[in-house]
Amino acid sequence: MSSQAAITAALKGQTLRVPNLTALFQAWPPQTLNEHYQESVNLTTNTILKIAAIAPHLQIERRLRDDIALLACLWYTNAPKLRLEALVLYVVWVVCWDDTVDTVEGDLAADFDRAEQWRDRTLAIAKAALNLPGTAPDGEVDAINAVLVDFGRRYAEEAPLHERQRMYDELVVYIHACSTEQKMRLSETVPSFDEYMALREGTIGGGTFLALVPYSLDRDVPPEMVNSPPVKILQKQVSVLASYINDLLSLKKELHSGCAINVVCTLLTPGTTLDEVMAQVLQNLKDAVQQFDEAAGEFIGQYVHDEILHSLAQELVNGYRRIITGVLEFS
Questions:
Q1: Banded pLDDT at 1 (limits 50, 70, 90)
Q2: What Cα–Cα distance (Å) separates residue 217 from each residue in 34, 35, 211, 214?
Q3: Residue range 10-28, pLDDT digits in tens
Q4: Predicted TM-score (pTM) of this structure
Q5: Could you tell me the CA-to-CA distances from 146 to 50, 58, 81, 102, 202 in Å, in that order?
Q6: Which residues form the signal peptide (predicted)?
Q7: SS3 of 244, please?
Q8: I need a surface site. Which of 124, 182, 241, 308 has the fewest CB within 10 A?
Q9: Contacts 24+ apart (CB under 8 A), 206-210
Q10: Are 115 and 99 in contact (CB under 8 A)?
C-alpha cells in the first residue's frame, strides 16, 4: 500500500486527459428523461430542505445545486410518477447519507466509531423500513434516515418480498464497503488495484440502483431472471463501468480533499504517466462494455421463444444500461 499524501503530491499539477466516454456506448439505446422530472425537482428540493431544517449542522443544503432529481430521472426513465417519487427519495437519501461519512464536511467523516454505530443503525432502520423480518430499532430516526424510511414505506407497498430482500442485501454490501473505505481514508493508505476494484463494487452503490430497476419498470420480474448467471455478469459490469466513470470525473475533487482512494491512483506507479493510466482505464472500459453486451445477448436469447419474457429481458437490460448512460449524461 502507498501513502495517500505521496500520491496526492505526485499528481499535483498534472492533467488527466479524459476522452469522450459517450463514444463507448454509441450502440446502446439513446438516453432519455423521465417525463415527471419537473415534479421530481420539487420533491428533491423539499426533502433536502427538510433535512437541512432538522439538522442544519450537516450543511445538506449544498446538495440543492446538484439536481439529484435529474440523476434519478435519467436512471429510471420509464417509472410511473408514484414509483419515481420513491426512487427519487432513495437517490436523495444515498447522496446525503454518503456525504455524512465520506467527505471532509461530513459530520462523522473523522469519527470511525460513531460512523460505525450509525451504519449499524442505518441497516436496522432499512430492514424495518423495507418490511423485512426483524426488530425495529428503538428511539428516534435521524433526519437523513427518515428519508430512507419514507422511501422504504413507499417501496414496500408494491415491491414483492424477493425484491425487498435483494435491496436490503445490496444495502448491506454498500454500507459495509463504506466502512472499509472510511478506515482506509483515515489511515491514509491506498489499496492495490485489485483490492480497490473489489471494494469499489460495493462503495459505488451500483447493486442498490440495479435492484430498483425491476420496481421502476412496473412489471413482474421473476426472481429466476435476476438470479440467472448472465444477469450476475451484467450487474458486475455495471458496477465496474460506473466505478471507472465516477472515479475519472471525481479525481480532481478527491485530490483537493486529500483523498487518493481512486482507480487512477491505484494504477499509478513511479514509472507510469497519467496518459498511460488513462489508456489502461479506457481499455478496461471497452472490455467491460464488451462483457456486458455479450452477457446481455446470452440473457435475452434465453427467452426468444417467449414474447412476454423476451420483451421483459430487453427492458431489464436497457434499464441496467441507463444506470451507466445516466451517470455520463448527469456528469
A1: very low
A2: 12, 14, 11, 5
A3: 777 778 889 999 999 999 9
A4: 0.94
A5: 10, 15, 21, 19, 23
A6: none
A7: helix
A8: 308
A9: 206/235, 206/238, 206/239, 206/242, 206/243, 206/323, 207/170, 207/173, 207/174, 207/235, 207/239, 208/90, 208/94, 208/167, 208/170, 208/171, 208/174, 209/75, 209/323, 210/170, 210/235, 210/238, 210/320, 210/323
A10: no
How far apart are alpha carbons 182 and 199 in whole angstroms?
Answer: 11
The single residue listed with the C-alpha cell 417525463 is: 35
The number of angstroms, rounded, from the C-alpha of 97 to the middle of its chain's C-alpha atoms is 12
Question: Which three three-digit cell numbers place residue 180?
Answer: 472499509
Q: CB neighbours of 312 closer than 8 A, spacing ≥ 6?
A: 217, 219, 221, 225, 303
Sequence-distant (≥ 6) Cβ neighbours of residue 290 within 8 angstroms: none
Q: Cell numbers 434499464 correspond to what residue? A: 319
The model's confidence at residue 39, banded by pLDDT at 50, 70 and 90, is very high
Q: What is the pLDDT of residue 246?
A: 94
Residues 167-205 pLDDT 10s: 999 999 999 999 999 998 888 887 899 999 999 999 999
User: What is the grid cell recorded at 318?
Assistant: 436497457
